[in-house]
């Protein structure tokens, strides 16, 4: 889960040809936008099923691994499927800028169409990395965020392009960052254990120093920062799902010492866990 994050880059709209308006991922509930949304939106479906309904009665089904590009101002509503007990997990990026119209024209075959994204895992990791970049750096991230947003849109475009032919055979696009994706998956799968970055680095075939450099270059933060942010977000989710859960129990489920967890939580959210959940 990446809580809704508003990117306050509006004062840079004359400088940035492409900028993020908001970004996040969550369990999507029913939502109606009769006047559309003021910015262009890219949706990624990670889990569950749901339906977008457009003006004129057109329906678009969104299932895991699918992407949808929705231009600004298009009336729509969307809701999870009643027939699916699994939560509908949607990632989203809203964006604008002087470059946006020409990009949308180039990607017109994706607009208002739910497509199976061939490189969905890469798109999701890019979305997560962009969210973390903005979350940790705020306005100081505006140039880098613009570049990463452009990369995401190109990744979507590249993933739907026909495979190139070379010497009579298929010439696949290189799978860059595969080791980093494996490392991030390890963190998400084992965040509740006492993970050592050195062990993660070895698991994906790198020295600790080289892994650290690659991770910072790819995600805009250190592996330790990424793991901490993951645990902090999970702690908020645990306390929301289980009101009254003891702080010690939360720390235990995150693989952290209680005193260290409280200290890191306060540094992240500006309040202790008990203060954070107090009505």
UniProtKB/TrEMBL annotation:
User: Which GO terms fall under molecular function for this chain's record?
Assistant: DNA-binding transcription factor activity; sequence-specific DNA binding
SMART domains, per database record: HTH_ARAC
Q: Has keyword Magnesium? A: no
Q: Which Pfam families match?
A: AraC_binding, HTH_18
Q: Where is the HTH araC/xylS-type domain?
A: 181-279
Listed A to Z, the keywords are: DNA-binding, Transcription, Transcription regulation
What this protein is called in its record is AraC family transcriptional regulator
Q: Which organism is it from?
A: Paenibacillus sacheonensis
